[in-house]
Write a structure and sequence with these properties.
GO terms for molecular function: ATP binding; ATPase-coupled transmembrane transporter activity. With about 100 residues, this protein is mainly α. About 65% of the residues lie in helices and about 0% in strands. It has helices at about 1-5, 30-45, 45-60, 65-95. Helix 2 runs antiparallel to helix 4 (about 65-95) and helix 3 (about 45-60) runs antiparallel to helix 4. The protein is elongated, with a radius of gyration of 24 Å. The two termini are about 30 Å apart.
Length: about 100
């Protein structure tokens, strides 16, 4: 218990590190994965505004006489959006989670 209460001093102390130094041990593969993961995060975040636009389209459809055809067109867009969101979520979790690259000892 005394060890956990003691402040660390010397070489094992908590030190602040500059942001760019966090990537000193990252190779090109890691950087490519981080960039691709960041792009997929942004793409995944775009799904919410797209859903708002699609809901606006489906509400506008109710004013037309040929509702069935237009509703099915917007429904197919929702299906495409669901597939898009699923792929982007998968890429986000795959590329930004570096645990699968860590060696098991």
């Amino acid at each position: 218990m005394e060890r956990s209460k003691r402040k660390k001093t010397g070489e094992g102390a908590n030190q602040r590190v500059a942001f760019y130094k966090l990537f000193t041990f990252a190779d090109r593969y890691d950087i490519v994965l981080m960039v691709a993961g960041t792009i997929s995060v942004v793409a995944n975040g775009l799904t919410q505004p797209i859903v708002a636009v699609l809901i606006g389209q489906i509400i506008n459809v109710f004013g037309f006489s040929d509702q069935d055809h237009l509703v099915s067109k917007v429904s197919v867009k929702f299906l495409y959006l669901a597939v898009y969101a699923g792929v982007m979520s998968f890429l986000q979790s795959l590329l930004l989670d570096g645990n699968w690259r860590a060696p098991i000892r």
